[in-house]
Amino acid sequence: MEIGRGKRGRRAYSFDDIAVVPSRRTRDPEDVDTSWQIDAYHVDTPVLGAPMDSSMSPATCIGLGRLGGIGVLDLEGLWTRYEDPEPLFDEIATLPAEEVVARMQEIYSAPIRPDLITRRLAEIRAGGVTVAAALSPQRTQEHWRTVVETGVDLFVIRGTTVSAEHVSSNREPLNLKRFIYELDVPVVVGGAATYTAALHLMRTGAAGVLVGFGGGAAHTTRQALGIHVPMASAVADVAAARRDYLDESGGRYVHVIADGQIGRSGDLVKAIACGADAVMMGAALARAAEAPGRGWHWGVEAHHPYLPRGERVDVGTAGSLEQIVLGPSVVADGTTNMMGALRRAMATAGYSDLKEFQRVEVVVSPYQPRD
Predict the structure, then answer these.
(1) Inter-axis angle of helices 114-126 and 58-66, to 10 degrees?
(2) Where on the phi/psi map is residue 151: left (φ > 0), alpha (ψ -120 to 50), or beta?
(3) Which pLDDT score, from 0 to 100, does residue 214 have?
């Protein structure tokens, strides 16, 4: 569509702009299968905990794993910088708004300690769950060997925007294709939000691609950089790249993981409907009573040393981690019993598993919040 005489743009939709349409027979929710498998790892719940200090600690990674999901620990967070970060979480939760950014920049300036990376991953391994951990592209070359030698089941390379062809005149960039080829563990990489960028990432050998950037609850990327892609369109575009890469590669399936704007159960439902295989949740899990953020939510962008592109957000507490993921729910706002809502939506639309549900009909219906 024409923005002005000198510029055209493509219309894109967020999850709030679309809705799922039941158009088949209905099913019993108990007959619906929400399990998901990436590489050799099979889980009952297609949810990854976003590698953000406010939601994922070694304890909550274990907790989410026991509930059927996969918790991803941020290896650049407080848990790998400090022996005991709990007092710092208390401090961040009580900081006045005008002091948050400066103090968080100071707190996160402490060096990352390889011995703490080893210790935290060992804690998660001892919990008997899938071990997943994340590094940014900038830190991957520095710490990946420690991560792999310690033992990780799923390696996540996560940034605001990750490309297969990063160009730098200051240092040797991470060659994703060579890096992933040489690793013996599956790699999930992102964010990406376009068909072309996702296709390039799939060609690196990644097991999964994270979809989204600049759209999470704690991001201010749109305000700071002017970068934002509505998630419904982004997921659908990357799902199309997955389909075409499946043909191009002769049958290699790359998982699409929606990462951003998954704040409530309806967003989870619509992410799968648009083509996602699973979702990565941050704010939704930061509402858990066990979450280290004490009812606050923030990401790595909030304490960037030169250009913060995030903020500390008050998300409150909705219930226990189990209530948020599996229920039962005592509220009707979509903040708890995420999997119950997904099961109910799939059953109402008549689909029995996640791959089937990706074919459900959706309509464009801009959301009008009630007063």
Answers:
(1) 30
(2) left
(3) 52
More confident of the two residues 214 and 315: 315
Phi, psi dihedral angles at 26 (to 5 degrees) = -90, 165
Tokens 């925007």 identify what position?
161
E strand or H helix at 260:
none
pTM: 0.94
Q: What are phi and psi of 176, to 5 degrees?
A: -60, -40
Helix (H, G, I), strand (E, B) or coil at 80: helix
Both tokens of residue 80? 């790998």
User: What phi and psi values does residue 183 have, to the nearest 5 degrees?
Assistant: -85, 150
What domains appear along the chain, each with residue ranges and CATH number? 19-364 (3.20.20.70)
How many Å apart are CA 264 and CA 231, to the nearest integer?
Answer: 14
198 vs 85: CA distance, rounded Å: 36
Q: Does residue 313 sit in helix, strand or coil?
A: strand
Secondary structure in 3-state letters for 261-311: CCCCHHHHHHHHHCCCCEEEECHHHHCECCCCCCCEECCHHHHCCCCCCEC
| 336's tokens | 């708890």
If one counts every other C-beta atom within 10 angstroms of the C-beta of residue 63, the result is 24
